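Annex B, item 7. Sequence and structure tokens for protein A, then protein B.
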Amino acid sequence: MSLRRVTQESDWQICREIASTHGRSFYLASRALSSERRRSILAAYAFCRLADDVVDFNGETTDERRAALSDWERQLDRPEHPVAVAFAEVRDRYAIPEQPVRELFEGLRADLTISRYQDWLELRRYCYLVAGTVGLIVAPILGCDDTRALPRAADLGIAMQLTNILRDIREDAELGRIYLPLDELAMFGIEPALVLAGSPGPAFPDFMSMQIDRARALYEQALEAVPALSPGGRLATLVAAEVYSGILGRIESNRYDVFERRAVVSRTGKVRKLTRASVRFLSVTRMAYRPDSVSSAPQRVRILSPDADAESWTG
């Protein structure tokens, strides 16, 4: 990487503001981490978020957005923007591989021209590119010490992206996009045109139920790798997975109506999810604890509250 200016506190603050504004579940989960790891993961989130924002349609042409995305990708080699400077330091500190970052940009470019996916294999590949890669980017920050766990880190990103897709069907349809497997829509007799019109028909709940089952299986598969993380990384990952997967439950509670009601996890729901994550964290950590290993000894970690300023400690 070329020479760059020294990271300033203001750079980290900008990253923190982006994460707290646009990634509230992610920001909440980050509170389980030490201050160094927390600011690092928020910088990674901010960099990926700004890349994603570039491809959102705000009146620009496709060519203009493609050029803007290339400009942002060049920040990897010549970081000048405050977020890019902070992320460059994070990449160096945690030896984050370049490949998943480049693949993220490949996925974002696909958003500029591709609005349909024939089957789950195609859609899964897209989910990997735009979100599974983020799992690989943040894995070192979360303390992943076993390369065999990395595919599960990608699975968590894929699960979260599929959750986003199921929540945002209406918004995507308004942009002419259908991020759903077309062959599976056909299996349920659902015409893509009806999805775009917001009236998919009586088979839609069964179709959604199948997609939700797939997403939940991905979450469970991903969490098999939690013991490979640092204690703070375990709790942060469990919180993120619990809170985010809660969106799936809200879709079910709304009787699969994603066109008239947006699935949002309530404050009370987040409290329940935090409790579940904490219980699971204690269980995983007990199993991961080895008396003959100093590095695996119990450590103090944050037990979180949905309140932005409320936190307590356990150890």
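Protein B:
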Amino acid sequence: MILKMNFWEHNMILIDGKKISEEILGEVKKEIETLPFQPVFCDVLVGHDFASEKYVKMKAQVAERIGMKFQNASFPESITNKELVQEIEELNKVENMCGIIVQLPLPSSLDTRIVLDAINPSFDVDALGNENSRKFYAGEKSLGLPTALACMYILESLRLDLNNLNIVVLGQGELVGKPVSALLTQKGYKHVTLRSKTENKDDILKNADVIISGIGRGAYIKGDMIKKGAVIIDAGTSESGAGLVGDVDLESVREVAGCVSPVPGGVGPVTVAMLFRNVLEVAKNINKNSE
């Protein structure tokens, strides 16, 4: 259990995403140790974007720490669609491969959709390929989008009675708003998704007990926009002069919000843990089918 308390009787609580992530990864590591083979994970990197290189290196370190083998797949920015698709098709054949993702954004010279769909759907642990995306939104058993899974995991770890709370999803992006709304619907939780054209948007937000935000507008949510004790899962990220910031203005909401996942250190680390939990699921399926 991560947290169990009445937020309305406390000062604002910051959710420790790193701690939650370590707990999940600890469980993943234990399960990997029971497998008769070492799962392989691959993060495809094209070009030399500093932030992308940093993320790939971090995921490589996490993979090796929990007992997975990291498959290096770095390609020059000059690579063509056809060449990259061929490289991914070769990665699909690697022995004990259990997860392939493509570090986004890709250079503008490449077709992201074609590249993502080159990944064998069985190994598409980011769930961004057409087949896994279709299954996910149809409610069929499939690998979920890690960021959306992370938002739901954090929310459910708070042990709130979500059936009796006003839940608002801010934004309808492909990585957060849209899949989070789908997961809430699939779990039977009533919610409202706020779009730019939604009427009475300010009133709906002000009455929300839970806000899940993924609009990528730095420090957009202020204290006067939310109700006392609101729980905010901040999955929005944007760059500022001070580095990475979330959708929530932490200083502004400090005296009003009950509980907030900060950026960085909130949803981000849990998203990485959910990614590797997806890789584990693939490995378990491969092991089950080989018995």
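Comment on protein B: The chain is about 40% helix and 15% strand.
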